């Protein structure tokens, strides 16, 4: 894969602060783990009042990417596998957690999960393979 230049212009759908349609996620990183909170609205639904799986996947993907960035690596997602456990309802608070579980010079492996903030139950889990861009 040819190297690609990754520039942040603050319009990322997941974390860009200038993107009026975006999720505007912000992240905290401590002791190898990344965390963000997310509360979907009806704008994020698939079926009535149920958050679309693509939105959940976006949150999990971005959390894993940001976990790598927090460790000084700018990656792109090569592969992502998401397992949905239960629905996330519109206006229900959730917390995403992510970490890098394996590192080499050519590939990172990451794990993330989205939890209901109220009781900590798992909404979805994801594993991904990330390729460092540099």
Q: Look at the helices and sheets and give the structural class.
A: mainly beta
CATH architecture group name: Roll
Number of strands: 6
Show unreliable segments. none
Elements, N to C (H/E) = EEHEEEE
Mean pLDDT: 94
Terminus-to-terminus distance? 11 Å
- Main beta sheet strand tally, sense and closure: 6 strands, antiparallel
Overall geometry comes to globular
Helical segment count: 1
Described by its quaternary structure, the protein is single chain
- Summed up, the domain count is 1
In CATH, the topology is named: Thiol Ester Dehydrase, Chain A
Strand content: 35-45%
CATH top level is Alpha Beta
Query: Looking at this structure, what is the CATH superfamily?
Result: Hotdog Thioesterase
Strand order of the largest sheet: 1-2-4-5-6-3
Keywords:
about 130 residues, 6 strands
């Amino acid at each position: 894969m040819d190297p690609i230049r990754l520039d942040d212009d603050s319009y990322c759908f997941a974390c860009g602060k200038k993107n009026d349609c975006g999720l505007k996620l912000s992240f905290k990183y401590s002791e190898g783990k990344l965390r963000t909170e997310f509360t979907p609205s009806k704008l994020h639904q698939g079926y009535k009042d149920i958050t679309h799986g693509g939105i959940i996947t976006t949150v999990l993907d971005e959390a894993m990417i940001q976990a790598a960035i927090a460790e000084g690596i700018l990656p792109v997602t090569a592969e992502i596998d998401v397992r949905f456990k239960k629905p996330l309802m519109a206006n229900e608070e959730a917390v995403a957690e992510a970490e890098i579980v394996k590192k080499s010079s050519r590939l990172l492996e990451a794990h993330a999960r989205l939890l209901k903030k109220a009781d900590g139950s798992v909404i979805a889990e994801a594993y991904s393979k990330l390729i460092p861009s540099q």
